[in-house]
Amino acid sequence: MSFGRRAGLPDVEAMTPIVLVVTGRVTRAAVPGLCAELEALLYDSEGAVRDPDAGVDCDVGGVVQADLTLVEAIARLGLVARRAGGRRLRLRNVPPELKNLLDLVGLADVVDVACGTGTGGGGGAAGNEA
């Protein structure tokens, strides 16, 4: 029996992911702005999708409070990512409280949750203080 060798490293993306960093406390009023910021990262000025093979990461390690408003923001950001070529939103630096809320409302199956730290370029930062 022989096994074929896979090209490249396993579980390593060929492209740098697009990263949106969310910090502070997310309010309902800030959610449309976060979606607009992600759209600006995903689409060029002509409306074409940028880097269609790049992943979409959302770093939530800097959020102050994990609540249902943040869960709503994540759900809407996930929709924005899917509309940009069927991409799946990956969360980075997820606090345990947020992970529990995502499990509770059934969104843990809709977004990828990575509790560890990650680095990557190409993103913006959204500071939302209440």
Strand content: 15-25%
Q: What's the N-to-C terminus distance?
A: 62 Å
Helix proportion of residues, in percent? 25-40%
Principal-axis shape equals globular
The total strand number stands at 5
Structural class: alpha/beta
Q: Strand order of the main beta sheet, please?
A: 4-3-2-1-5
Give a written overview of the molecule.
The structure is a single chain. The protein has 130 residues and is of the alpha/beta class. Helix content is 29%, strand content 21%. The protein has helices spanning 31-42, 68-83, 96-105, and strands at residues 18-24, 56-63, 89-92, 112-114, 124-128. A five-stranded parallel sheet has the order 4-3-2-1-5. Helix 3 links the parallel strand 3 and strand 4 (112-114). Helix 1 runs parallel beside helix 2 (68-83). The longest helix is centred in the middle third of the chain and has 16 residues, at 68-83. The radius of gyration is 16 Å and the shape is globular. The chain starts with 17 loop residues before the first strand and ends with a strand.
Secondary-structure blueprint of this entry?
Blueprint: E1 18-24, H1 31-42, E2 56-63, H2 68-83, E3 89-92, H3 96-105, E4 112-114, E5 124-128
Parallel strand pairs: 1-2, 1-5, 2-3, 3-4
